[in-house]
Design brief:
Oligomer: single chain
Helix content: over 70%
Distance between the termini: 23 Å
Shape: globular
Number of strands: 0
Radius of gyration: 23 Å
Mean pLDDT: 83
Number of helices: 20
Length: about 525
Amino acid sequence: MNPSNERLNTRAAGIVAGAVMMSRILGLCRELIFAGLFGAGRGMDAFITAFRAPNLLRDLFAEGALSTAFVTVFSQKIATEGEESAWSLAAKMASLTVVFMSLVSLLGVIFAPQLIYVLAPGFSPDKVLLTVLLTRVMYPFILLVSLAALAMGMLNAKNIFTAPALASSFFNLGSILGGVAFGWWLDPHFGERALIGLALGTLLGGLLQLLVQVPSLYKAGFHWILDCRWRDPGVKQVLSLMLPAVIAASAVQINVMINSIFASYLGDGPVSWLSFSFRLMQLPLGVFGVAIATVTLPVISRMAILGDMVQFCATLGRAMRLALFLTLPAAIGLIMLAEPIIALIYQRGKFQAFDTLRTAESLQFYALGLIAYACIKVLTPAFYSINHRWTPMMISFLSIAVNFLFNLFFIFHLKMGHKGLALSTALAAMLNVGMLLFFMTRFAGTLHLGRLWSTLWRCAVASVPMILLAIAAHPWLHHLSKMPVLFRMGGLLGVIAGAVALFMSMGWLLKIEEMSGFLTLLQSRWKRQFKR
């Protein structure tokens, strides 16, 4: 590969990684602000469920399947037929998206009561009415975010990364600022009426996510006109590529829907507690799991095309070990320090100590599956590179059945409440990654699992001092909980920094291979930044 192109890819990856981190942090800020204003009860349950309705379609169609399929075909058009043909395809897809998603939005508004009955059959009648109202306000969000995903695909295909990478951050900014402003305008005391303001803020965020990309789109050469010639071969190719991705993504969304249905029967609060804790769990997953998968996929894809399965397996195995090395201490940290972390971030305003305890419980159970989630992110795309794209989809559907059965057992037999939903999700993820590993070794060859187990036990031993420090620090952190927020933040960050230092020191003593590689990567990036 040309060195200049390698530097370009590294720089683009850095831009995207930084933007993802910014978006995750803003998303966390969004939730802690809303939690402080509305707590974790009836109103927030209704808002989260109402937002989940269009958000399911966003995850299913827009930001995954549509963008990926469009980038593939759009890039091929540029390479084979020139930019004019590619922009013509873009106009057709934009027109189809506007018409189809407008119809979906209209249907969502009309059939909101039926939709909420499916998503939350356990809600009380007055809670259902509130949720339906919020759903109807927010449903056009799917149109805005679908167009934003299409714009992101166009720009990425043209090697323009900054604007689309920042778009999701603008969604969070718009939903925070707009939601608080509209909410205060409707109800200065932030009662349930102010939730309509949050719904309007969500629409504003979706609009900003689209508009922030428009100047770059026009500069790149896109000028949209309504074009309804949808029998075009390029449009058909995009839609055909979307089908497997939509089917695979639907398994994840069905799991989300099943958990939402069970949570709706558990009274006021569980929907919010699960949502807040899952957001925190996704922070290390997004930083580590997604980053490793993004870097690994193009490398193993080239090896698969060249037929070099020895290097394919070695690289994939190395990525798995790196994911384990990074996420095991993160999972232990979330389990051991769940309560002080939740208290520091969320406990203010209407979010009380009781909500902190319940949210921390679900975070601890979610974190049990963090390693599995990260490895799934790495393994699943690898099946696409060896032309076994249906295998992870079938495994995902099996995990749906397992998740459902676990939910029944933990909720109704063991009476675990919302903790059972988090635990069943983690166990289903473990089963998922186990089956992915089994089939990958059957299709591609050895992944050097002996080295994976070696990394696992070494990391587990290296984590023991972390655990002891967290246990010893708990009384001190509890004492700090009565202090101002800066003291609490400083104390918690100090404990986390000490835990990381202990883990890294033990990793060095135990000669964990992935740690030396990780330190070398950090050192090389620091030198490049210093030279600039």
